[in-house]
Amino acid sequence: MARPTIVDIARAAGVSKGAVSFALNGRPGVSDKTRARVQQVAAEMGWLPNVAARSLAGTRAGAIGLVFARSADTLSAEPFFMRLIAGIESELSLRSVALVFQVVTDHTAEIATYRRWAAERRVDGLLVVDPFVDDDRIGPLDELAMPSVFVGVPPSDDLVAGVWSDDATSMSQVLKHLVGLGHKRVVRVAGSNNHQHVQVRNETFRRISAELGLDEAMIVETDYTAEQGAQATRAILMSPRPPSAIIYDNDVMAVAGLGVTQQLRIDVPGELSLVAWDDSQMCRICHPTMTALGRDIENFGATAASLLLDMLDGQPPRKIETPAGVLIARGSTGPVDAQMHTTPR
Amino acid sequence: MARPTIVDIARAAGVSKGAVSFALNGRPGVSDKTRARVQQVAAEMGWLPNVAARSLAGTRAGAIGLVFARSADTLSAEPFFMRLIAGIESELSLRSVALVFQVVTDHTAEIATYRRWAAERRVDGLLVVDPFVDDDRIGPLDELAMPSVFVGVPPSDDLVAGVWSDDATSMSQVLKHLVGLGHKRVVRVAGSNNHQHVQVRNETFRRISAELGLDEAMIVETDYTAEQGAQATRAILMSPRPPSAIIYDNDVMAVAGLGVTQQLRIDVPGELSLVAWDDSQMCRICHPTMTALGRDIENFGATAASLLLDMLDGQPPRKIETPAGVLIARGSTGPVDAQMHTTPR
């Protein structure tokens, strides 16, 4: 007997096609009794569950892959990653696609994982995070012919799909907020310059600082950890001409920087304003609360997942720009006390 | 032609069995050239990749499932979850087992996901997090005959496998530290009483408080969010007889509580000591730094994954107690100023 269709099963079980779909896909919408009957009828008719059937037919694994090449400590410290996953999930669950997820230590292990998944036909496509300069993952991905979407500023290659957010508009908002409060010297504590999005933010920071007539735009590079965020803050505040405002590249470093100001008894926002890139609960619970650039990270993840699923359905690779973040002004930014910053501290 | 074995492929390609295994599983250990040759030979001989082959043979999906039924906001706020995943991954990657991961809104959707995965033969087993009182996931899991390990205090049922940590020893450490500093009134800000582990911690808190001769052990129930952590702290500090120390059930609430003390201008640790259950970067970067109960959450996740994989290899379900956390004394706990706490604030 040929593989039964949903229509065959619906007829045999005396229920609607929709009910069969709900029952066999484990979704709400049918009673437990109906579900049990449909499952029994389907089993008797030799219905083959999806994953095995699709793999056998050489079509779909019904899953996409995501690898984070970061230490567990970095991943757990930055709320960004879990929000990104939640956004990805929101889109996948609509289409009953599974997420296969792995945390590895470096890009070599990441590429090995992609090869293994391809060999096992484990996933149909990949979401590739943290695009970096001269990204050496593009070659292996091409070779594996695995549909992939870069999450973050994608490589310029036309055939590479990606989603990113409009960091220029975001940076402009942040700097205009600070200039509006009278700030003239602003320092940016950036993530690693190897990341594409960090380079973009650095360039925009320099360009817009110049446009707004700010003093020399200084950038300090870090590895995104609280430790380096704190260290950078200390070095900046001890320098001969400390700034009146600091913009951090993530929430973790901003809150760590706030801790340093408390140790040094520097009043925030009286003597120094702080801004975090990416809002999080951490920014809302510190004291003073942290002014932050809030982005819709869930939407960012959902857009990436949706683009990948479209590609699996035969659509061409695209590049999609998601909306810029919105500045959320809180307690950590305030007007410059002019006298305090005319002379070095 | 029958499905070729690794030995057949090794002979045809003129390489070792190990090299074939490395090449086909996408693992390091062979040159790119050898990998390419082995893959070509294997393809010519009709080698069927693992996932499809295993599903077809009705054996293994080669993956285990994990569902978080929490809001994206809670997940991203608590570093616990990503550390747990990292620990799970560390064990899975050793055995080339994939993690299929889904975030859903509630337990109904969680159970629906388990049903769907079972219908699709998507996973071989499940890690079930956040065990709760009268856990209604046990019935469906039994029905699906899906090997499962509960992560956190497992249900008492002999057939249910689980891992948990020794919260009694941890609680004893925390309370002895506070008593050693002269504290007599300690309040616990707990998570939801529906969770098994919260009940266990509540009972231990009451028992050990009594053993150590502390004043009436007060417990305030919350939902683990920063908002309720802050609210509980405010209520506790405004009460007629405020305590000299507060123990929080997670790091997020403890740091939120610290924010409240700063707003109320209550000196920590001069007037009030704070302790967080579960250490995190957040505890290390706030000011003062937060005394915390540090658990090896990665090991907790790895132990759970290892137990599940053993069960998939035919071992019986077990219950495994992982080591107690270790108290990390930092700036947020200090000696009681006796005068300050003899009269209500």
Automatic annotation (TrEMBL), chains A, B:
<dbReference type="Pfam" id="PF13377">
    <property type="entry name" value="Peripla_BP_3"/>
</dbReference>
<dbReference type="GO" id="GO:0000976">
    <property type="term" value="F:transcription cis-regulatory region binding"/>
</dbReference>
<keyword id="KW-0805">Transcription regulation</keyword>
<keyword id="KW-0238">DNA-binding</keyword>
<dbReference type="InterPro" id="IPR010982">
    <property type="entry name" value="Lambda_DNA-bd_dom_sf"/>
</dbReference>
<feature type="domain" description="HTH lacI-type">
    <location>
        <begin position="4"/>
        <end position="58"/>
    </location>
</feature>
<dbReference type="Pfam" id="PF00356">
    <property type="entry name" value="LacI"/>
</dbReference>
<dbReference type="InterPro" id="IPR028082">
    <property type="entry name" value="Peripla_BP_I"/>
</dbReference>
<dbReference type="InterPro" id="IPR000843">
    <property type="entry name" value="HTH_LacI"/>
</dbReference>
<protein>
    <submittedName>
        <fullName>Transcriptional regulator, LacI family</fullName>
    </submittedName>
</protein>
<keyword id="KW-0804">Transcription</keyword>
<dbReference type="InterPro" id="IPR046335">
    <property type="entry name" value="LacI/GalR-like_sensor"/>
</dbReference>
<dbReference type="GO" id="GO:0003700">
    <property type="term" value="F:DNA-binding transcription factor activity"/>
</dbReference>
